[in-house]
Amino acid sequence: MQPDPATPPAGGTAASVSPPPPSSSLIFLGTGCSGALPDTRCLIRPGAPPCHVCSMGLSLPPDQNPNYRLNTSLLIEYYCHDDGTHMYILIDIGKTFREQVLRWFVHHKVPSVDSIILTHEHADAVLGLDEVWVVQPRNDRNKSEQIPIFLTQFTMDSVARRFPYLVEQKPEDGDEDAQAAKIDWKIIEEDVDKPFVASGLEFVPLPVMHGEGYICLGFLFGRRARVAYLSDVSRFLPKTEHAISKSGAGQLDLLILEANALHGVGDAFSTHLTLISRCYQEDSS
């Protein structure tokens, strides 16, 4: 009779089983619109009948509720197999960032953020910058280390007007006891031919229209799997569409594309794609 392989031999110990190797992952901190969901207007001034989606937004705890959504934001948990480093890279830090930290950083045991990348300068992408100091990495002496933030010059100019104390690296209103974030501002280009590296991972900027006359960035990244992340899109620019096509960067493994609504094809004033409008573009191309 053959012994059960799960049973150790007499007087022996079970063979040790190696844990699976670490891997990279994506954590969606938020997939909601600029005002997040549920829309408070639907709750404090309900219609007749009340909004079905926003009503469901209060029916379950937030972590179990697909209709409770915070500002669009992605946390990349990046494990580099070359040197064994483990990094956290954040794309966008909007108005709901504090709640995202309390809900998802705690749940996933994320200790800090190593780099931040901004897609554009709207409130739902940058107003959480005041909380950067909370997630800054710390050294062996428990001192905060600089955190690099990658952004275009246009976004930098807007951030400087809103958060002068962060750009000047000094506490707000002369309060010397206040905690000021230590930030290394890094300017990137709106150009698919000018990639940059954040915490060891290369990113290719993917400029898209976010309403006519306004450019927002998406990003192409990944070493073993190619991921294109595109939020706040109303129209694709030709170079970006080529960059994420088979003839450009090659076959994507994952396309993350925000659509604010299911129906409608949009017009010249639209700032976001709808799911139907994107399908229509695919069928027409």
Question: How would you sum up this structure in a few lines?
Answer:
The chain has 285 residues and is an alpha/beta fold. The chain has helices at 40-44, 52-56, 97-108, 123-126, 132-135, 153-162, 164-167, 238-243, 275-284; strands at residues 25-30, 73-79, 86-91, 115-117, 147-151, 183-187, 196-198, 201-209, 215-221, 227-230, 235-236, 254-257.
Task: Tell me about this structure.
The protein is of the alpha/beta class and 285 residues long. It has a domain at 204-285. 21% of the residues lie in helices and 21% in strands. The chain has 9 helices and 12 strands. The protein has a 6-stranded mixed β-sheet. Strands 7, 8, 9, 10, 11 and 12 form a 6-stranded mixed β-sheet that branches. Strand 3, helix 3 and strand 4 form a beta-alpha-beta unit. The longest helix has 12 residues, at 97-108. The relative contact order is 0.09.
